[in-house]
Records
---
Amino acid sequence: MSPPLAGSMRMKPEQFLTFDSLGAAIYIGTYAMAGYVFSDALRAITRGLRSAGFAVEVVLGTGLVVYAGYRVIIYRRYRLLDAAPRVHADEVGRRLAAAPPGSILIADVRSHGYYDADSERIAGSIRLEPNRLEEEVKNLSKEREIYLYCT
């Protein structure tokens, strides 16, 4: 802000450079003196920061290893769920046509974000709440084939 202010006050360039150099010398000298006076304290602070930095590295590294192990365990536990048999819609239609009435149950398990009560559903299908799926499944007949569909 100094140069525009000096220009608006019509200060001579030599006078501006003198004051600017003096201000810069005071600024640099103050920080150099503070560094000299507090050098022992600054060394102690930087030593402490280095120690804290090492501790943070250890904690974050350990956390990363634990998280990776947790993800591996979760993957192994639930990988069989990814192997659920999938049936194409045409195949389900053929099975529905060939099966006796009431032997196949089709359930809509779309989540709240995708489910709209006014949207079209497969004829004869029922709605199962995906957030309460374990409770809802207890009420279903185990003698029927059950097909789930979502988005």
Note: The chain has two domains: 2-79, 85-149.
---
Amino acid sequence: MAPDVDAAIGAAEGALDQARTELESLARIPSISADPERAVDVQASADATVDLLRSHGLENVRIASVPSSQPFVLGDWMHAGDDKPTVLLYAHHDVQPPGIVANWASDPFAPEERNGRLYGRGTADDKAGVVAHAHAVGAWLRSGDALPCNVRVLIEGEEEIGSPTLHRFLTAHLDDLRSDVMVLADAGNWDVGVPGLTYSLRGLAAADLELHALRGPQHSGMVGGAVPDPVMALARILASLVNAHGDPAFDGAYDGLRVPTDTERAPIPGFDDDLDGFGNTIGLRDGVHFTGDPKTTLHERLWLRPSLTIIGIDGHPVKGSSNQIVASARARISMRLGPGQDPHAVLAALARHVEDRVPWGLELDYRPLETSPAWETDPTGPAFDAAKRALHKGFGVEPVLMGVGGSIPFVGPFADAFGGIPALLFGPDDPGSNIHGENESLHLADFASLIRSEVHLLTELPQSMRR
């Protein structure tokens, strides 16, 4: 390594305790973008992100928005010269709701270390990515007063609700974001200690459906047997959406799906042949079977095929329930989509299926929600070569090229807005991080390795890329 890289790595290593402290401070803010009652907290998280980026030497740091958006944070450092590439560093400061708080071993918004992992909502997804970007930049500026490339930073405030205003935001701030390559610290590692470099993401489509039977609840003993139960009606519809394997089963669920190549389908040693290991990592209970077509590999089911999940359901809570037929019942359906699928077309097919199966004449209210197509790229070329070298130096082992079953709506629109620039996806979580679930956690040693990798990346990219 050149001396300037040594100095920057030394500065990053010397600030790891500070990085953890800053991450804990940011993770204490319940910036739940899906909850309108948390709007003040989302704003507080954006304000704290502004302070964080400024403290590490980024310039022109400010909150930006478009009408009805959550707060974004922008910043830059543009003094490397016109001959150097401009790198966009992306992460998001909003988080998922905590879920069932009683299932957490500690307060979801009071970060706590246990066995080398930092537990708390947002510790891995994605406030660790925010802090890693800040420290990678800060390490270069503290050690040598300059970065080896130009840098722009975008920290989003609505990723966890599907980035609903993203297109308008990109249009309004195109000149502030123009870059040659983007780095998204919102993905994860293949395993603890083994970095991943993500080249594909599934798409996303969601909808709410609500069934109305009565103007108000009625005594189940007095009207039961004659008056339809909207919760039972909802259950009948939801059960019809999947087959015996748990795969989506409605007409149109697979429309447009690109058929994977033989290479893409080839089993991955140590993963597809180790279902028990995967089950143990994610906490699958003994005796519970995996879903999905048994003729497909595990990675196909997770990365390349559509899936359907009921992520919310309303009728009446069990606690406080009484013998009544409720007036209405509602469910939120979330689908992950494979490459080539049109989210709007899938939601339209879902609507047709539901409309045709509403029992007993109940009134249906169907409302489509966020959509995002799948994204995939060819993980070759100078930018990816630079990322592979940087991750190898940061973690000490070669990175694994991998797909991810989740969705990051930002990636495709931004890459397209600038002519298909390379998108480098890696990040702080691992298979045991339980992002979006209870007891989300960050492996602290991997967090340090991520920061080191980003420090290396900021010098590897200008060595590989020409403007």
Note: Residues 3-201+374-464 form a domain with the Aminopeptidase fold (CATH 3.40.630.10).
---
Amino acid sequence: MTEPSGLWTLDFGLGTLAGEQMPEQLPEVRIDNFNEVALGYSQEQAIREARRCRQCKEAPCVSGCPVGIDIPGFVGAMADGNLKRSIAIVKRSNLLPAVCGRVCPQSRQCQARCVLGRKGAPVGIGNLERFIADWETKEGGVKLPAMAPPTGKNVAVVGSGPGGLTVAADCARLGHKVTVFEALHKLGGVLVYGIPEFRLPKAILETEVDVLARMGVEFRTDALIGAIVSVEELRDQFDAVYLGLGAGLPYFLGIPGENLAGVYSANEYLTRSNLMKAYLFPEYDTPIRRGTNVAVVGGGNVAMDSARTAVRLGAEHVFLIYRRSKEEMPARREEIEHAIGEGIDFQLLRNPTRIIGDARGNVAAVEIVKMELGEPDASGRPRPVPVPGSEYTIEVDVVVPAIGNGANPLLIRATPGLELNEWGYIVADPNTGATSMEGVFAGGDIVRGAATVILAMGDGRTASRAIHEYVTTN
């Protein structure tokens, strides 16, 4: 629905997400472009929203932030109109606030613990973080943080995703020389290849990465560690190594027909669109099957990104197939709302059983079985159970499984000294990030399995403290 002001209100039977509603492109407009959907608070809106904060002494919101931002501090400064102090407080803990304000699941973390949320809408902490980061950029450029004198120690960071960038920023601030190795030709990891432009404009990411470069962090792209150089060799060259590889090995459904033309892993589908810029056709002639009827399988943020990308690439009908109900969807509320507003057809309590091809080996349809919810499984959510005899088919020409990722084995196979768990992820001390290899630390998805940007950043914050202690005492 549209408000008289022309704004789109996010409401999924859960109430509005903030006292001050974020202005956005209307659904009928945004489905035809890849521009950012949310347009950001005005300064007046931001200050009004900040003034809703009760400045609780206990500050439960802070305990919900994996990187420990002083939320009452930065919100209180904003409420007083002291925007320079507000951004300075944020950046004590987070040098990527414009990214986090856009993609972090605040409704499940800091905002979930806001006392105002008990009876109404919590303070829009994420929207305020985004505002203050954007304000700094517009008001004359992002300032460099205070930095300690050089220590003479050097740290290697493998992977330029959110965890790796956090380690790089923290270690550089502490006076260490940092070199980041990125396998791809662009920096940002999942932030650049996985998250679409309409949710995280790449210029925003580039601005925040540029701050690290100005801090003296060296970036080496097209550097596939494990192939061009081993972790052991890095350890010989650097005082400490951080592995922030992410979890880049896509999972598939394990059903007949996944080898048909027109089936993409979500990784490939989003990488072709985002990193390889298929969305800018014909300026970039990156091959991607756009499809008329597209089926996306999954209920997380990656599934929402894939479905919403398919709409913008010209699909007439996009089905989002999820085996549980909307209450169990792990995606951010905002992404679910945006997908609904953009006309995505939610096929809930449904699961694919096979993909059907035509005579030429192209996707022609997907067979689906209805599901019902049973007893909770290991995730704590009700286990979906197939309903016998409920199968039906829908005609589609593209299928995108978006059901998670596993540990990429390339570096791991080349590093026998790393202890792994039963799922192939690196075993790391949760309090330090230390691995089984001396001087090697790890965090993020390569340790946790596929998780969130802010959890990877939290792991990076933990590891950077441990790295600092390690290199200054050894």
Note: Residues 262 and 289 are 7 Å apart (CA to CA).
---
Amino acid sequence: MLSPLEYAEIAQGEYQEKIFKIYIAYEKGLREAGALDFDDLLIKAVELLSLNENTINKWQKTLTHILVDEWQDTNKIQYKLTKLLAGSGDNLTAVGDASQSIYSWRGADYKNINYLINDFPKIKIVNLEQNYRSTQNILDAANSIIKKNSSHPILKLWTNKKAGPKIKIYRAINESDEAQFLVNEIDNLITKGVELHDMAILYRTNAQSRVIEEVLLHSAVPYVLVGGVRFYNRSEVKDVLSFFKTCC
């Protein structure tokens, strides 16, 4: 929520001075193009609702009930926008878990859960602690780590499922070692009679798929990538490979 001039007042050092110059040029480019970026959509909306009483009254009457999901990943401007739309009414429902906040790098603040409780004292808190996905062993492991936090409310997750197998941890040297470990585990499961279609590899980010796919290909392990495109089938990768083929 800082304008270029507001940022200039707090900018220190050569790096932030460069950021200020880039910010000025970027804002100028947007104005010349008659464009708004995603942050502008939020900021302009808050400015409009804050400065125009007729507009805020209209939308508070129109939006009779407001539901915000993943509340722990809201940032300062999103919180202010929600407060403006909700007004003084009791029509706001927010769903979130501070322990699942993963977007602090782009301004999200899990403390918005605490601010919500302070700004809406009549709010009713309903803890959804039953888990339908995981076994109790997985939940116990997660709870043992999460319960050490003292900065936000902690949910104690439980399930009706059985305890399940114990969690195994393998500390890989690097991403290639991690991928090779996966292939070795697949081989062990095949030896025990487990079919490939009963196995799944879950990875944290799409960027990890390349190394895993390479090791699977080199080990002649057939696989299907769910919810994405195989690394070597991605358009940008195919373009680069075609370029190499042409040049070489």
Note: DSSP finds ten helices and two strands in the chain.
